Every structure is written in structure tokens, then in C-alpha cells.
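A common beginner's mistake is to predict each chain separately and then try to dock the pieces by hand. The better habit, illustrated here, is to supply every component at once so that their relative placement is modeled jointly.
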Amino acid sequence: MAAPILEIDRVYKFFGGLAANADVSFSMEPGTILGLIGPNGAGKTTLFNCITGYYPPSRGEVRFEGRRMNGLQPDKVCKLGMARTWQKVRPLAKMTVLDNVMVGALARTNSLREARRAALEQLHVVRLEHKEDHLAGGLPIGERKKLEVARVLATQPRLLLLDEIMGGLNPAESEEIIQLILELKKTGRTQMVIEHDMKAIMRISDRIVVLNSGEKLAEGLPAEIVNNKDVITAYLGDSLE
Amino acid sequence: MRPALPPMLRAPRGAAVLPLLLFAAALAALGFLPLWMTSPYALHVMVLIFLAVIQGESWNVLGGYTGQYSVGHAAYFGIGAYATMMLLQYHHLAPWWGVWVSVAVAVGLGVVIGSITFRLRGPYFVLASIAVAEIIRLIALNWTDVTNGAEGILLSDIPPLTIGGRLITDFMSKVPFYYVGLALAAMTIAVNWGVQHSKLGYYFQAIREDQDAAHSLGISLTFYKNVALAISAFFTAASGAFYALYVGFVDPSTVLTVDTSVQIVLICIIGGIGTILGPVVGALVLVPLSEALRSNVIADGLFQLGVSENSRTGQFLKENLAHAHVLIYGVLVVVVILFMPEGVLGFVKGLRRRFAGKAALPAKGEA
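With all components supplied together, the output reads:
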């Protein structure tokens, strides 16, 4: 067993008296895909924010490649090789698609020429190169999501955190994203994926962690999770008897 | 749609030769202009235009590219003006040395202020920038021992500039100021060009478009905002020093007021924010407009059109229109902002696109 790339160690996050995350622990093997699921308000995005430095965990520790990440700013986290996308996409609206991805690529180089080359490469990966001259703000949602992925890939992350990257997409677009995630896995990237589409998450995930009311409810292989009584209860409620 | 070429075969963007040639040509033409344009008033208007260009281009780095709408640039303008004047008048330090000290002070203070106020976003940052400039105005007003308070500092004279014993200029006419202004204006334009065509420009614009997204892409917000502010404060302070030496007088109510800050922002808003040429266009619109209103051309024009100068209306116009120039100026500015929200430059681009029938094509942020 390889050393874990990411360790979430008893992480708590309080907002006032509300525990958005409570005692969450799990770890990720390099090169795997972990699905993070749970009902609305379970604390999935909060956990993403704790991991990527948007706010420090109130208690507990996040370790990336053995290094303690608590208190590091998001830009540092990105430089260290961990990058995230946003549930609500955040295109740099008045910049072109290519410029958007170049901003990501510039995290690794000071040369515009080099950044442009890297950006075009990532646009090719997400199949958006025909839109390179368009303003990012004018893209339809499906392409915005792809842009988000290309931009984050350009920062050369070893661990990628995708926050509801398929939300709002039609089945064909979702399928494209699924293929993209599987392709990225082949290149050795580790990915943590928040998703509501159960079919999709079961297909792509190596392991699944279920959050409910801020706590970890279950963890296991996809097949184990679909048959887990607690998980079914959390999503559908108790049976009537 | 164009076919996707492999990355290697595409020409790198930004290698534009034509704008560079035009810039050089304009610079050369302006360089020869004082040879035949000898009217002191015309030179004066040109100097004011240069000053506005320097101010606008300086603000543009922070406000235009980085999206941090400072309405407190009077602070840096005033510090540049005051420090240069104080060093010259009280310590007899020649202005071409003093200006370095004053920009250093402005940049140093800017970074301290920035490290505090850049935590604030949107309107809160704007308010903080106004507050800081007001604090500095109040200090200048009340710290009488150092700044001579409300009386201001009157310059006795600027020492002649000599290099190796040869007299370059004695600063007696407006011509040396014309050239210094031109040089500074060209320099700030070049700086904006450099910013737009470098990593800085990409990072500044990313911060403007979405701070959280920028942050998650490895951009240190505080660091890059401070870099933008440092560049901006540097040239704003230089423009302040230039202004003080040109006018020969500074006091808190001319260089440190909110009016000054607003004026600087207006140059960019009118011309077009976040473009290289925007502040130039803004300066070319605002300075002549303000000069024309001040010298009462509207009343004169009406008299030319047949309104009797001695009628009651004529008398009224003559007496009041000159005083109303600020009001008219304000109304015109509001009209421009209402009908050209992206500035004159954005408006012209929009027209061009409409006439070319390519309204659907995206506008590229080049200018």
C-alpha cells in the first residue's frame, strides 16, 4: 500500500455553534478517485474549503503528501499541487478562454509563451480549443465547466478536487465529463469528486465517503455504499414501520 | 470556427508592430510640437493633458487592471507633491533627486496602507481608500510645523538643471515642463503596455474578475494587489511632484482633496477602464472640456450666435456661466457615464463592431 496522498484527520469545522464538519477522517491513495457524497447541507463543500485553505479547520489536521496544510492560504495550497474547482463556476468573464487557462498555467511558469503552450494543451484535453478566442463569460454552462477543469489542470495539480462538476449538465455533457475524469485517472492524477448523480459517482469512484450532518456516515467501495442501510436512511428517511 | 492547429504552429499573440509604430510616431510628433506651437496657453493645456494622462494611466494599473477602485489616489499625488516641495524649499534638495524620495515615501506608505485595506472588498475598499486620503489631508492641514498647514508651500524657484557644467534648462518657460510631462506620460503608457503583456497583467485581471477563483489558481491576492498599488502609487506620486513643481505651490485643498481623487478616477471612467488608451482618451476629453468651460466659451459662443451681450440674458450668462463650469462639467460627466458605460473607447469599439456587423464576435481586451 502506497503512502496516502491526502489524509483528513479528525477534522472539525464550526460556524458559531454549528458543526459543519465533525470528526471527519479518511485518506486517499495516489491515483484513485474518491467520491464524496451526502444529502444537501452535509458539509461536503465545507470540507473542500477546509482542505484547500479557504478556511482552516477548527480542529483536526489535513495532510497532503505528508505535509500539514492547516492555515495555508489557497494560493499556497495550489502551488503545492492541490487544486479545486467551484460548484458555482467562476469564469474570469472578461478574459478569453485561452487567457483563463493561461492564468492557471502561470502558477508554474513566468513565461507567457510557455503558459500559452501549456494552456492550449489543457484546452485540447477538455476539447475546448475551438473556443480559445471567446470570452469566458459568454460560454454555455457545459463549456464553462470544462473551462474550469482546464484552468485547474493547467496549475499541474497532483490532487484534483472537483465540486459538482456535472451539476446542471445534460446527460451527454455529463458523459463527456465522466470520460474526462477517467482519462485523467489514467494519467495518474488523484481526484476527489463531489457529485449528486449517483449513477455517475458509482461508475467513477474507487472509494466513496458519505457525509451526513457534517459527520462521516460511511466509507467503502461503491458496491458497499449502495447497500448500506444508514446511507439509504440518510437519503430517503426511515421506513414507515 | 477555425480548425485547431497543433500548439506549435500558432503565432504567439501580443507581437503587435503597428501600435508600437503609431506610438513612436505620436511621440515624435509631440516632441516637435513646441517648435511651432509657442503659445504659453496652448503649452499649458498640453501640460495639463500630460498630467491627466500620467494620473489616469497610474490609476489604471490598480483600478483598471486589478479592479481595486481606489478613490484615494490624492494621497499618493499629495505625498509626491508635498515631499518634493518640502525637500526643495526647506532642504534645498534638487527636485530631480527629491522626486525619488517622494515616490519612495508614497510607495512605502501605499504598501503599508494596502496591506491593511486590501483585506476589504468592493465598496468597503473604496470607502477605506477615501478615509486614508482624508487622514493624510488632515495631517497635512494640521501638522503646521512640517507642512505649513493651510497656507501651503510656495516655491521660490527651481534650481537650473545642469549636466557637466552645461545648462540644460532653467525652468523659466513652460517648454521644459512640456517635455518632462511628455516623457512621464509616455513612460506610464509603456508601463501599462508592459503590465498588459506580462504575467502581472494576467494576474491583475484575474483578481479583478474573481478574487476567489484567482486565489485558488495560485495567485497571492495581497502580494499582487500590493504590486499593483506600488506601481500605481509610484507614478501617481511622480505626477504629484511634477504638478507641484509646475504650479510652484501646494496646499492641502488643491492636492489632497477627494476632488483630486475623483478627478483621477474620472479620467479612466470617461476614457475606458482597464485599457491602455482609455486614460489618454479620458485626458483628451476632460482637460479641454474643463478648460473650455472655465474660460466661458459657452457664453461667448452664444454671443456669437446672436444673443446680445448687453441684454439681461447676456449679462446673466456672462456672470453666472463661468461660475457654473463645475456644474456643467458634472452634468456632462454624468451623461457620458450614462450613455457610454464602458467609456468613450468602449463606445467607439461598440460602434465599430455594429457597423462591421460582427456584433456577435467577442471583444478582445486589447486596446
